[in-house]
Write a structure and sequence with these properties.
155 residues; mainly beta; four-stranded antiparallel β-sheet; 12 strands
């Protein structure tokens, strides 16, 4: 059992790696994302972000992390890049206010959904190259094929 330390401000999100339960990722209002080795109790990687991070999750593999930020952007990080190179994430901008959550589609890990303080959800398909597939306003029903996944509420 470990207490993981290293963030300088409030930790706002943490997720286990679906492919390796000895790994986790966290994010903080100190503008960092940290990848943790849970067996040894230490930080394996630390990524400095351009904006406060509100939510983080693993992407299509253990080498991809997706984060949601105060500046309204979602960022996709490739952890396989050399240290420092991961500072150039793929950025998806689609919200006018800060992103409150990012969640991977449980049945299709090439898609994720973001929620925002602008009262919308954005569905993003990583394969399309277009960034966002479309906004969904609060109260609007998602298409049936997406409604079976985890629900993300607008704040």
């Amino acid at each position: 059992r470990h207490t993981l330390t290293g963030h300088a401000e409030k930790v706002v999100s943490a997720k286990f790696c679906p492919w390796n339960y000895a790994r986790a990722v966290s994010c903080s209002h100190d503008r960092t994302i940290k990848v943790w080795d849970l067996e040894r109790g230490f930080c394996k990687a630390s990524i400095m972000c351009a904006s406060n991070c509100n939510s983080v999750t693993y992407g299509e593999s253990a080498a991809v992390v997706i984060s949601g930020h105060y500046d309204g952007a979602a960022r996709i990080w490739d952890l396989r890049q050399k240290p420092g190179a991961a500072c150039d994430p793929v950025e998806v901008r689609g919200h006018s206010q800060h992103v409150t959550a990012v969640t991977m589609m449980p049945t299709n890990r090439s898609q994720f959904i973001t929620s925002s303080r602008d009262n919308t959800l954005k569905l993003v398909d990583l394969r399309s190259g277009r960034g966002r597939c479309g906004p969904y306003s609060q109260g609007e029903r998602l298409p049936q094929r997406y409604a079976m996944g985890e629900s993300v509420c607008c704040a």
